[in-house]
Amino acid sequence: MIIQLKRKATQEDIQKTLDRLVELAGEAGIDFRYHTVQGEELPVIAVKAPGADIAKIHEERLRQLDCVEDIKRIADPFKLASRSYLDKRIVNVGDIEVGADRLCIIAGPCAVENEEQIMKAAKGVKAAGADMLRAGAYKPRTSPYSFQGLKEEGLKLLKQAKEETGLPIVTEITDPRNIEMYHRHGVDVYQVGARNCQNYDLLKALTELKRNETAVLLKRGMATTLDELINAAEYLLAGNLQNVMLCLRGIKGIDLKYTRNSIDTGDISVLTHNCNIPIIYDPSHACGKRSYLYDTSLGAVGHGAHGLMIEAHPDPENALSDGPQSLYMGDDIKRKKENLADVIKDVRKYYDFRRSLQKP
Ligand code: PEP
Ligand code: MN
What span, in angstroms and rounded, lies between the C-alpha atoms of 53 and 30? Predict the structure, then answer.
């Protein structure tokens, strides 16, 4: 159950509502837990009564309170992310509205490698028509001997790339202790990577800082169910961080001979039907090879993705990480399906076509 309070509700109103809830739940013999969320949006009280029939709570007597705007029953295991609570959530990153009516393209190399590489990449991403630049400064790698990222130096270079191109920056955060530093360097979107999808301490720490100025892109873990993913996002929403995007990037499957992961584009449809958070698809980590990326990107758009996050590198053959899955940049590429600007052109066209089909 979600109790929405009126915009002007005070702390006393919240307490009054909770007192009434205690009384009514007591009458119904129900044990409940609650969580209050306050901020820019309407203040809400999310109520859960695990194992009990919450319908036994006399809802009308809650509605009688002046400060109560509305009460919603939500059957989903997640609440604030549910479409029964809110149909659609639009995420603001600068002037960009993710989840509105334009496909959002985030692109860039897997990692910041040096000044020349990231500046070339940033200019290429901008010229290709992407909306945001993404590159990792802190790289969680499977092997401790692989390139681990330039760390704070990488953040400084990203800031420089942002100043030069005006593109908002998306980069992965791996450690809650670094959040303040990321903020200092002007990071716009904090990517929580697959390995940290259910790192609740990191998620909670993200909600404690600059919640109105930041956005989080939460990637699906390698073997994370959709409910687990949405509930991880629920930690951010419950902490009143509203600018949340989900990112699917493939999952471990039974056949990883041909692709890096099992391509989970079909799950985009499931998520958009049940959950109000915009969905970004990452075809690069799903496929692991640039040759599959074009079809997978169109497939993701076909399933209703609100955006794509694509790896592209000015010199993929010499990339320090994820070169084989990175698209080429620039105009001199004959293989159009492997060139960032051409892929972006086609996915945008397809997105607009798909939207035109849905018009009444
Ligand atoms: C990445 O985005 O570069 C990355 C490491 O991806 P994932 O967390 O999905 O493995
Ligand atoms: Mn990568």
Answer: 8
Q: Mutation test of ligand 1: which of 282, 308, 309, 310 has the most ligand atoms closer than 8 Å to its C-beta?
A: 282
pLDDT (average), residues 109-115: 98
- Determine the pLDDT at residue 46: 87
Give the β-pairing of 307-311 and 132-134. unpaired
What is the pLDDT confidence band of residue 210, given thresholds at 50, 70 and 90? low
Whole-prediction pTM value? 0.93
Q: What confidence score (pLDDT) does residue 89 get? A: 95
Q: To test ligand 1's pocket by mutation, which of 143, 285, 311, 325 has the most ligand atoms within 8 angstroms of CB?
A: 285
Task: Determine the pLDDT at residue 272.
Answer: 97
End-to-end CA distance of the chain: 33
How far does residue 110's CA lie from ligand 2's centre (Å)?
Answer: 4
Q: Please check whether residue 105 is in contact with residue 307, taking contact to mean a CB–CB distance below 8 angstroms.
A: yes
**What are the pocket residues of ligand 1 if the criterion is a CB atom closer than 6 Å to any ligand atom?**
110, 136, 193-195, 219, 249, 285
Residue 208 near residue 231 (C-beta atoms within 8 A): no
